[in-house]
Amino acid sequence: MLFFKRILKEPEPTASTPAVERRSAKRYAVNPAFALKAVLSFIARDDTGRPMSDTRQGWNWKGRLIDCSEQGVRIQMGPGLKIELGDPCDLKLTVDDFTLTVPCHITNVREQPEGMVFGLKHDIEDAATGSAYRQLLEVIALGSTLKLQAQAKKPKPDASGYLVEVYASPRPSRLTVWRHPADQSVAAFEFQLKDNLVRGAAGHTVEFLSDLEGTGSRPASTEKCLEIGRLFTWVVPNLAPAVPDDVREFLKIYAS
């Protein structure tokens, strides 16, 4: 099932362009604060390397996603699990009430002090599963790729009287923060998430806006507000380390 029906839509394919831009080489970090639960279903092996069952049903092991890409993920598992390269598995991802099952196989196994790290390559053949996974990948990428843009050594207030910080991404993601010049506390923000905007200011309710076919941002419909709000709530816990703690805490007020 798709995580979003009204936003994060894939471009329509044309005769000259692919349906989806591939970014197979790029991996996106998954912050442990993001409430994304991962369970890996596979047949464990005994000390001799022999499979301990002939079916994966019921063999579910909790893990934590480290990072993900268009083609695969890295997942941290508990210590002592035995598996071999090429073994098939199902990666079950859950966030809120949404669940996605991604078929994959093992491509790499590393033992670390905190547990096992498995490299997985996706074996997605179903178009709906592929679309849903790319949406989830976009959610992770929108926040994790933000970087602080160059600033003057001594920033000066803009026309509004506030100090401005901008965090931008190669993805269609841009976070603008306004600070009080007196104490540099956060006063307001604007977060572009693809064709959507989220705005918040101290003492005011959050605003959700959308760009209707390039005609300019305007208040989103009730249905879109719900999806933009969910997207914002999922992106905020997965912000890049470049975003300061006080900005994160300010955003959390509006993402709760």
**Strand order, largest beta sheet:** 8-9-10-11-12-13-14
The biggest beta sheet reads: 7 strands, antiparallel
What fraction, in percent, of the residue positions are helical? 10-25%
What portion of the residues fall into strands of 2 or more residues?
Answer: 35-45%
Give average pLDDT, whole number. Answer: 89
Rg is 21 Å
The structural class is alpha+beta
Number of DSSP E strands = 14
Give the H and E element order: EEEEEEEHEEEEEEEHH
Output the CATH class name of the largest domain: Mainly Beta
Contiguous uncertain segments of 5+ residues = 14-24
How many separate structural domains? Answer: 2
> What is the third-level CATH name, the topology of the largest domain?
Thrombin, subunit H
End-to-end span in angstroms? 24 Å
H/I helix tally = 3
**Envelope shape:** elongated
Q: For this structure, what is the CATH homologous superfamily of the largest domain?
A: predicted glycosyltransferase like domains
Describe what you observe in this structure.
This protein has 256 residues and is α+β, with helices and mostly antiparallel strands. It folds into two domains: 28-144, Beta Barrel (Thrombin, subunit H); 147-255, no CATH class. The chain contains three helices and 14 strands. The protein starts with 27 loop residues before the first strand and ends with a helix. Helices cover 17% and strands 35% of the residues. The strands form two sheets. Strands 8-9-10-11-12-13-14 form a seven-stranded antiparallel beta sheet, with helices on one face. Strands 2-3-4-7-6-5 form a six-stranded antiparallel beta barrel. It has helices spanning 127-144, 222-235, 245-255, and strands at 28-29, 37-41, 60-68, 72-77, 88-95, 98-112, 115-122, 147-148, 163-168, 173-179, 186-193, 196-201, 207-211, 217-219. It is elongated. Residues 14-24 have low confidence and may be disordered.
